[in-house]
Amino acid sequence: MLKVTGLETGYGRVQILRGLDMEVPQGRIVALLGGNGTGKSTMLRAVSGLIRVWNGQIEFNGERIDNKAPDQIVRRGLIQVTQGKDSYPSMTVEENLKVGAFTRSDKPGVARDLERVYDYFPVLKERRRQLAGTLSGGEVQMLVIGRGLMAAPKMMLLDEPSAALAPKVVLDIFANINRIARSGVTILVVEQNVRMALILASYAYIIRDGRILIEGDADDLMHDENVKMSFLGGTVADSSREYMS
Question: pLDDT tier at 104 (50, 70, 90 boundaries)?
Fold first, then answer.
């Protein structure tokens, strides 16, 4: 569904991505993993049209989308969900969610998807008339994921959904990401929490210095001794796999 080939880009004269290649097949959860400053978020920004691609190409459903305008990419069904801090704090929860449907004109479909979001995240329904700025960090993360769903995406790009959240909240959010994927939405999740992402995903890429360092089936990487020593420090127990099933 998403194919990135030889991607090079950066900011100003500073190159961040250096010939990055990766694919996300339809119907799968794929993880892009690595520490701060490795190029994860830069890759998402390039795919979403927020920064220019210098070299290489990006295909979505067989169509070139590199350097297309962000709204054109959204209309094709490719949605980026940023970290929770990007909610609209002076708007209510429900107003935030409805902003996600700004490209849609099918009111019955929007209403159905709003109820679907509330099914995934019941706390949002409880707080639907509450200002987003009064929510906890975990609730705001649920809100921005829900807002992304309101665009009726074919594919979601999730940027650090576990960032700065308590382990129990991370488990809840990752369990719902798994449910969303099972509903037919393809997902690319960008994470520093390598252990949790490998439990969630079926395939993973590990990035360092703007290049893919390692890739493979998530379960194989989980048990790879080099990956264990270098990347698996996590704070959430392996039993979380059963929690998300």
Answer: confident
